[in-house]
Amino acid sequence: MKKFVLSVSVIAVAVIAVISCKKSTDNKDLWKAVIAPASPISDATCLSGSIKGTMLAGKTYSVCGDIFVNQGDTLIIQDGVTLNFGLNATTNAPCGLGVKGTFLCLGTKDKPVMITYPGVTRTDQNGADPNADPALKGKWTGIIGAPTCPLMVIKWTHIEFGGAAISAAMKTFTAGSSPYSLYFANPNGVFVLEDSWVYGSTDDPFRINGGKIAVLRNTFEKCGFTGGEAMNAKAGTIGDFAYNLCIGMATNGPKLSNINVAVGAPSSNVRMYNNTIVNCGYRRSAAGRGGSINFEEGAGGMAYNNLIVNCKFGLRIVNNPIADTANIRYGYNWYYADSVSVASQFIPSLSVSTAISQPQETDFPKPSSYLPSGWHVGDVYTAPVSIVGVNDPQFINAPVPLPAGLKLRDISVVGTYNFALKPTSPCIGAGFTGFTPRADVPVDLKYGATEITAPGKDIGAYQSNGRGNQH
Predict the structure, then answer these.
(1) What share of the chain is helix, strand, coil (3-state, %, to 5)?
(2) How many Cα atoms occupy the beta-carbon half-sphere of 111 within 13 Å?
(3) End-to-end alpha-carbon separation of the chain, Å?
(4) pTM value?
């Protein structure tokens, strides 16, 4: 009898080809085939160069040179692992992780994974000078997925201080891209980021250039020095961004564009729902940008049930280059402002921004309650003082209203705040559940999304029934 042996890379290609299969059980079995038998990785010496196998639960590993997962290989990180990125032992330059194969980082709620640069002191007090903040300067490069990476899954993981300059070797993974804490670039691949924390970055903490995504129930804190979104997705990215807390982003929470999409690939389309987006947009160096949610250049999708608090701009449907306005649906978004200037950009004006966002009477507050008579899309308006402080979402503990002596840009981290809702919150029961997630990725405890959480009846990332964001 003849025996036929398929390589891991061949199996991975076959998996990608059938990802659109409607039977989740089939998807689950096929994605298991991606994972090659993995041997334990020793924690006895610092890591450098090519790597594959399994980092074992609870152990601490140190990196003293760029580490790489080659095409066809797999790196698995088990729960409770600490992965410390130090400087390159030879060049004294920052190190990173480049992935041409498969990467699975499988923390748990009780035993999360920690990926960090050790010995850095956080400057998390309100009003800290961003110029002196190590979280915004990047201490190690990041996790860089090459176009050949078929699958990247990150669960219950802390990712801190990423975004340092990349080495020449790492540039072969990114085609010379700027550094990001997380980067994924396979238009036929799958990226899952769930229940994790991304803290600090020099630019976007998460940049994706195509692929199927599930970005669910994460916390993004203080990302981007003078620019950067919680998620910057382009080039035919499709999927879901939901139940995320975004606080203190330099620019936006999620941003979606279709720029650089490959010929024949689907257009970017992401459903952004039940996110809580707080104090974003105030470190953005370019005028007219930054704030909450952006749909740009040929991108479509949905934006419902988002709680947008004291952000520089409300939801932006960009006019130049124009988003895919025929395929964008939005509403039931909750806005809160502590000043007239912020309330006057709930619907961004063309003279300040490039947005053509349409007023939605399902939003809170209703646009008819603050837009002047005769207002047209893109017109400048000044919100009435009566709208300031209206619709307090009633977080359990949060900087709402803005504490005396602070500016909105001064608040960029969770710290001791609790952004869950009080039982008396008007956001409870105000959400819209008449749509479904895209659910483009497989559901699997290891090889896909643990679950793709459906739209919630409460506005924002935290649900009164205990679902949604668990941080």
Answers:
(1) 10, 30, 60
(2) 12
(3) 55
(4) 0.91
Rg (CA), the chain: 22
- One digit per residue, the tens of pLDDT, for the chain of length 471 reads 333 333 333 334 344 443 444 333 334 443 444 555 468 999 999 999 999 999 999 999 999 999 999 999 999 999 999 999 999 999 999 999 999 999 999 999 999 999 999 999 888 988 888 888 888 889 999 999 999 999 999 999 999 999 998 888 888 777 655 679 999 999 999 999 999 999 999 999 999 999 999 999 999 999 999 889 999 999 999 999 999 999 999 999 999 999 988 888 889 999 999 999 999 999 887 777 788 999 999 999 999 999 999 999 999 999 988 999 999 999 999 999 999 999 999 999 887 888 899 999 999 999 999 999 999 998 999 999 999 999 999 999 999 999 999 999 899 999 999 999 999 999 999 999 999 999 999 999 999 999 999 999 999 999 999 999 999
Reading the block at residue 200, the tokens are 């600090």
Cβ atoms within 10 Å, residue 350: 16
What residues are paired with 102 via a beta bridge?
A: 74
Query: If we measure between CA atoms, which residue out of 300, 295, 386 comes closest to residue 344?
Result: 386
